[in-house]
Structures are given as C-alpha cells and as structure tokens.
Amino acid sequence: MLQTNFLPFPVLSTERLSLRQITADDTDELFLLRSDAAVMAYIDRPLAQTPADVVKLIRVIDDFLNKGEGITWGIYLKEQPQLIGTIGLWRIEKEHYRAEIGYLLHPGLQRRGIMQEALLKVLEYGFSVMGLHSVAANVNPDNQASIGLLEKIGFVREAYFKENYYYTGVFKDSVIYSLLTPIR
User: Fold this and answer.
1) Which residues make beta-bridge pairs with 98?
2) What does the angle CA 142 – CA 162 – CA 145 come to, to the nearest 5 degrees?
3) Could you tell me the CATH number of the domain that includes residue 159?
4) Range of the domain at 74
5) pLDDT digits (tens, 9 = 90+) for 36-63
6) Which of 54, 135, 155, 168 could form a disulfide with 177 if both were Cys (CB 3.0 to 4.6 A apart)?
7) Quick check: 115 and 84 in contact, CB under 8 A?
8) N-to-C CA span, the chain
9) Is residue 3 part of a domain?
10) Number of domains in the chain
11) In which element (H, E) is residue 149 found?
12) Which conformational region is residue 67 in: left (phi greater than 0), alpha (psi within -120 to 50 degrees), or beta?
C-alpha cells in the first residue's frame, strides 16, 4: 500500500515558480482567489465570504497534510512573495496508488504556461517521490482551458458522467481524466 509522509513539507522549484506550503501569511491572497467568481467558476465550492473562511481552509489543508491524506502547494513566482495559485494532490487512494489533482490560478496569470509548469512538477513529485501509479482530474466539461492543459501533457479522458452530482440547485456533469505513471 502507498505510504504518504509529507513532513517536512516538500518545497518544489521550477524555472519560474516556487511551490511551497500555504501559511496564514497567505490569507489575503488566498481570500482574493477563493472569493473571485471567475477563479471559482469551475470549482464547485462556495465562494469565501471572509478571510476567516480561508483561515478554516488552511486548517483543513494542514489537517490533510498532517494525516498524509493530501498535499496542497501554494504557487509563487520566484521573484514575488505573493501567492498566485494553489495545486494539490488529494483524495489519495493509498490502496490503489492513485490521487486526484486540483488547481487554481490568479486570472491575470492564466494562459502563460504557469499552471503547466506547476502541474508537471507536482506530477513528477507524485510519480517519483510518492510512488503513485495514476493521477486523476475531475473536470467541469465547460472548463475547456483545464481540459486543454490536461490533454496537452498526456492525460486521457476516462469517463463522462451525466448529472452525477448536485450543487447549488443544479445537477452537473463531470469529466474524469487520468494519467498513468511514466515508464521508469
């Protein structure tokens, strides 16, 4: 069975990005992201109403981390200390060596290759360090930008579920993409 231990927190680095642990110092930036309807358009979670909502979210993220049930990195440009997005592996199915990936990015920084850079680094960590066999992505079928990104780096559509969940008074569809571990 897959063993997960995210302590000490693994800081990841790319050419432009630092991926590190989200802290209370990131509350203001995370609140701006989680309260922005455009950022949250395809993430079926309530918009943050106050910074206190984000403080609670950071506690949940830390709890998952400490239990080895998920890991979420803050995304930062190397030359700037402000949080610009998040990316994480969660819904870890240890017995199946599988996790789900989720991410969000400041709208002013989208379409610049930032999320692709972060995603490739996190996938490398998931496959090489964690020992995952597969990573899934549960995507709103209207989120063409995310679908395009996933397909560009090799994710394959596994399923399309019609009205498989209920959120804000509406039955919604979801598409499941998956990436298997690269041959080592």
Assistant:
1) 93, 134
2) 15
3) 3.40.630.30
4) 12-180
5) 999 999 999 999 999 999 999 999 999 9
6) 155
7) no
8) 19
9) no
10) 1
11) helix 144-152
12) alpha
Helix locations, 13-134, DSSP H: 27-34, 51-67, 114-124
In one letter, which amino acid is 42?
Y
Q: Is residue 22 included in any domain, yes or no?
A: yes
- Edge-to-edge strand list for the sheet holding 12-13: 12-13, 17-21, 71-77, 83-93, 98-105, 134-139, 170-180, 156-167
Q: Is residue 1 part of a domain?
A: no
Strand, coil or helix: 6: coil
Amino acid at 136: A
d(CA 151, CA 19): 23
89 phi and psi, to 5 degrees?
Answer: -110, 125
Q: What is the band of 183 on the pLDDT scale with cuts at 50, 70, 90?
A: low
Q: What are phi and psi of 93, to 5 degrees?
A: -105, 90
155 near 137, Cβ under 8 Å?
Answer: yes
In a domain, 31, yes or no: yes
Q: Which two tokens stand for residue 163?
A: 């009205």
| Whole-Å CA distances, 141 to 4, 41, 42 | 31, 12, 9
